[in-house]
Automatic annotation (TrEMBL):
Residues 55-147 form the Methyltransferase type domain. Keywords: Methyltransferase, Transferase. Pfam families: Methyltransf_11. SUPFAM superfamilies: S-adenosyl-L-methionine-dependent methyltransferases. GO terms for molecular function: S-adenosylmethionine-dependent methyltransferase activity. InterPro entries: Methyltransf_11 (IPR013216), SAM-dependent_MTases_sf (IPR029063), Thiol_S-MT (IPR052356). It comes from Streptomyces viridochromogenes. It comes from the Bacteria. This is Methyltransferase type 11. One of its GO terms (biological process) is methylation.
Length: 230
């Protein structure tokens, strides 16, 4: 259950404030649904989910219409004000109940072990503190619960990795709302104590130019049923 709900009263400037990027993403992401096949990726990301789900960094809410009807509730965390407003509109079009809530991955405003699944889509690249965010994912997920992820990260050969690292130290986070291209989401999940399930490498766009942000991974991880120290 969310401890705060969106849309009530005045919202102050939040910890994630990227108004220009938010405007750009709101347009680009809608085009990518069809032109880059993101709609199909979202279907695969969310297929088979059921019960209570928390989606972290929900953006403008493009996942919402892809949730299967077995999902009883989605709590969608989004820190950026413009994207959150668009997510509230998307929630109205969803077939499952979606509650859009302000907050960050590093301090999720929800109770522990309250969710059957966590959805991460194109967000670990942007959070400020990946280990802390994944610690929160682990806290809010019930033992045995699933993390469904679609994330981009490091990939390609040595030249591409050097390029990705150079971009991360310079312009990329500045122009892309804090995004990084050289992170390794699968390794980060493993280091955070999750059990890795099936993972598939995906290039995005699939048939277009290869960009530093093209190297994606679509997969599932689980919170172990028996706790081990991380
Ligand atoms: C590239 S967008 C992806 C949006 C959406 N998940 C999707 O699949 O289209 C990255 C999102 O992460 C959000 N974000 C950035 N920093 C965050 C943080 N610390 N905690 C949670 N979300 C964050 C951004 O506001 C933005 O909505």
């Amino acid at each position: 259950m969310a401890l705060r709900s969106a849309g009530s009263g005045k919202v102050s400037r939040g910890p994630v404030h990227h108004p220009l990027f938010a405007r750009f993403y709101a347009r680009m992401s809608v085009n990518a649904e069809t032109r880059m096949g993101m709609g199909g990726i979202r279907d695969r990301l969310l297929s088979g989910l059921s019960g209570r789900v928390i989606e972290i960094g929900a953006g403008n809410g493009l996942n919402f219409t892809h949730y299967p009807s077995a999902v009883s509730e989605v709590v969608a965390i989004e820190p950026e004000r413009l994207l959150r407003r668009l997510a509230v509109e998307s929630a109205l079009r969803a077939e499952v109940p979606v509650d859009v809530v302000p907050g960050t991955a590093e301090a999720l405003p929800v109770k522990s072990e309250a969710f059957d699944a966590v959805v991460l889509s194109l967000v670990l690249c942007s959070v400020r503190d990946v280990p802390r965010a994944l610690g929160e994912v682990r806290r809010v997920l019930r033992p045995g619960g699933a993390v469904r992820f679609f994330e981009h990260g490091r990939g390609g050969g040595r030249a591409m990795l050097l390029t990705q690292r150079a971009l991360d130290r310079t312009v990329w986070p500045l122009v892309s709302g804090g995004c990084h291209v050289s992170r390794d989401p699968v390794a980060a999940l493993r280091e955070a104590g999750f059990e890795l399930g099936p993972c598939r490498r995906v290039m995005m766009p699939e048939n277009g130019p290869v960009l530093p942000s093209s190297y994606c991974v679509l997969g599932t991880a689980w919170r172990p049923t028996e706790e081990r120290p991380v």
